[in-house]
Target: NADH-quinone oxidoreductase subunit C
Amino acid sequence: MGMFGAKGSGDTSGYGRLVVRRAPLVSSARPYGGPDGQGAPGEFDEVADQLERVLGDDFADAIERVVVDRGEITFHVKRERLVEVMRHLRDDAALRFELSLGVSGVHYPSDAGRELHAVYHLCSITHNRRVRVEVSCPDADPHIPSTVKVYPTHDWHERETYDFFGIVFDGHPALTRIEMPDDWEGHPQRKDYPLGGIPVEYRGAEIPSPDQRRSYA
Model:
């Protein structure tokens, strides 16, 4: 239960009693459409078709699912195939996602065996398109291949994701903390990280202790 009686939703603050329920994401049906909708085949289908062509028979093994949600397409990639897929997305003339906008981490404690996710935001300047690549790993084995050799700007982004989420990017040239002190314990953006904070008095509300302020179950 979150603050102000909020429970059973993604709204753990309870502010305004907002409730956001999200169904588990599954592979989207064709046509994927484009940023403006899924009514007919569009640029998302073109990207998926071309990626399938360059991967060939390995497409089904490399791509776990394709999700179109809110005008964006995400390719969920097996971690063992991540570097290969990213290289195709960058180098293939019909894809040419030459710009990466960064790497971010996400922690889903209830996603058993896939608790930690790394998310890559790619942009094609050549074709004026955007896609997202997402790869997961378990808490028990928090390793994902580094993509610094494909997108050198991922150097500091992977360090930040390691710092805040504990994802180990294998092959990174210098995977150390980048924002927290070197001797910091834990990874502060994980949802199982203890919350701190300053007690604030509210009229008509009791503020729970830090370890009770959020529930992600």
Notes: Residues 24-212 form a domain with the Beta Polymerase; domain 2 fold (CATH 3.30.460.80). The helical segments are 43-55, 59-62, 82-91, 154-165.
